[in-house]
Amino acid sequence: MKKNCFILGLLFSGFCLTACSESGTAVSSGTAVRDTMHLDYAEQFSVEYLENGCAEISIQDGFDYLLVPDGVPVPEETGNQIILHQPMNHIYMAASSAMDLADALGSLDSIALTSTKDWELPAVQSALEEGRILYAGKYSAPDYELILSENCDLAIESTMIYHSPEAREQLLSLGIPVLVERSSYEAHPLGRMEWIKLYGLLLGKSDEAEQFFNQKKEIFQNVLDANQQDAGQKTAAFFYISPNGYINIRKPGDYISQMISLAGGTYLFTADDLQVDDNALSTMNIQTEVFYQYARDADVFIYNSTIEGELSSIDELISKCSVLADCKAIREGNVWCTGQNLFQQTTGAAEMIQDFYEIFHEENPEHLTFLHHLE
Predict the structure, then answer these.
(1) Across the strands, what pairs with 315?
(2) pLDDT digits (tens, 9 = 90+) for 135-179
(3) What CATH number should be reported for the domain holding residue 284?
(4) Smallest Cα–Cα separation from 174: which of 157, 149, 199, 156?
(5) Is residue 222 part of a domain?
(6) Residue 374, number of CB atoms within 10 A of its CB
(7) Whole-angstrom Cα distance, residue 55 to residue 299?
């Protein structure tokens, strides 16, 4: 009972502790900059390494952080920077896209809590089922008592937290620093994955992160090199059929449509074709008739199974929308389906681009990672 009263007192004692973190302008720790993190594609964060061993991290949402290694004293002048103390071994991961990056670094033992119950990532799901990672409630209504009892030292949130600012405020008031990850705002598909360099820095695995990213970049570069030798581009539609009968497509210019372009294909829809909703969503619904108008002559159909589940056959797709039977891609049997782990597996960007390349340029691609052929 005393514990509960203490926690409630912390939650509602006011948010004065957050005031020093709300400015969007970083005030340097007063220490000279030694080096800057090299980034190939990511534009939503930057890192400067300081002579005193600390690192200044700037996120494009306007918040700035000072990463202080274990045993290094906090500089006297930190201004409005949020202080992050290493090591961080009890992280509350409320950003699903970041979990795969932590897994790739072999750092799931640093993740104590999550806001997601069901994972398509086997290692993460096993950790959740075995109690090595605990479910701590949705990002908008976390279990503060559990988070405190697990000695949480960092909350990593997705931009969805902007819709529930009170949750962020309460975490900060409890002394838990909050970092909002913005990889979904990266313009380049590999920019999303390059956030592994930031998590490598936070988790003390910068070398591993650099090596991992370079391996993926090599896969991507091989696709670009192959594209220069292959003539012609196939048109592709990436979509799923919603329960209410709408066709849900990726917005023109989103990272999936960019992957298709980088793989040597042409995404079927452009901003000139559609009245694109002016919101932060990466998808939009269109009427079946509108989809058919543009997609009937598409060379390739790619069905997004991550929402409504995977398909096993073309007939199953046609049963969802009979007018598609007359489309070129279906008549020629050039229909593919994604695996359900596509969007949780942030590290798969290069392989996804490679998959797209294979289905655009090979007659019978056999070594696909995220796509399977519908018969």
Answers:
(1) none
(2) 999 999 999 999 999 999 999 999 999 999 999 999 999 999 999
(3) 3.40.50.1980
(4) 149
(5) no
(6) 20
(7) 49
